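Supplementary notes for students who missed Thursday's class. We covered one full example, reproduced here. Read the sequence, then the structure, then the short commentary at the end.
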Amino acid sequence: MTEQKPQEDSANRWSHNRTLTVSLRTVNRGRRAAGILTYSETRSVKRRLWWAMAVVVILSILVATIGNYISTVRTPTEAIEKHFNNLRDGRYFRAMDRSAYGDDSVVFLKNSIYRQSPGRVESYSIEEIQESGNTATAQVKVKADGKEQLVRLNVVKDHKTGIFNDAWHLAEPGQKLLSVENSFPLDEFFINGYAVDLPDTGAFSPEESSLWKVALLPGKFEFGMPKDSYYSVVGGSYSVGVGFDQGSLKPLQYKLRPSYRMWSETDQEINKWVQECMNSRSLSPEGCPASKTPSEKNITEVEWNLISRPVMYLEQDSQKGDTWHASKYKPAEFAVTYEKNGKKITEKISTPIDATVVSSGKSASIEVKAGEPSESSASPSAKDTDR
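Structure (token representation):
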């Protein structure tokens, strides 16, 4: 028994060392499984990432260069074709020169509005191009509104930094700016049957006036007001034509008058006001005609009636262009009947109707009240009673 102990101790030590070795290998495998790389593996991964990034950058530069090359107008012919294709297809913003975008007061149209313009390019053919250095002159036969005409255009080349960046474009902007002026600010007006919202920046000094610059391309444009506007154009509408060799456009001065909508709604408000006054049981209802009887003591059975009311028409305020008043050329006639101390009295009251409308086109504020009485008379029975 005593001789076997050294052998057992040796066996136990060997077993312990083997277990420790296996455990260390297991730990190392666990660390590798957890994503811990060796130095050589780390360098290999970094090299792959750098190559991937380099490929992405090179591809991006290549795509950008190709895109720039394709989009850049490299010849006078391309510049002419691009411009007339945009006009023919009604691509308003693409045909617009970039110089138009530097002014906040410029009003731009939608493509749909321009496509509705008569007189737009139907077809074209480039007859001749004479190039001299950085400039070129083109003769283009254009068909518009069923007629053909020969149009002369100049194009120039811009030199820009970088390869493939030199580009040709029209020497003069293709659009013309039309100055539209009105005696007061407007929310919108109509062009070719479409409503065009107007920016607040259109207002200028004096504040009672407004001026806008509308960017127009070759074609014909009909200016007016929307059917549901509180204003209509005197004469119905304005026609403006823009030619291919057009010089400066003559300013357009809007002349507006109250539309049927303004007249109708003002008339309705007056009728509503009259009815409210007629429903009153007071001799002096607020905002309505008033009796001259100083006191309502012992007054009963008050009843108001409208005898006559003049035909309404609106006049523009002499100071504020967006303000209109019902004409006071003739007063309205009212009668108020009441009993005082048991006796029936009828009093006739003559007073103008003070109706005021303020509108910038889309909406309106309408206020109605009694004006200052110009005449008041009582019936004989009333005089007898007052004595």
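Commentary. The chain has three domains: 31-71, 73-258, 260-386. The chain is about 30% helix and 35% strand. If anything here is unclear, bring it to office hours.
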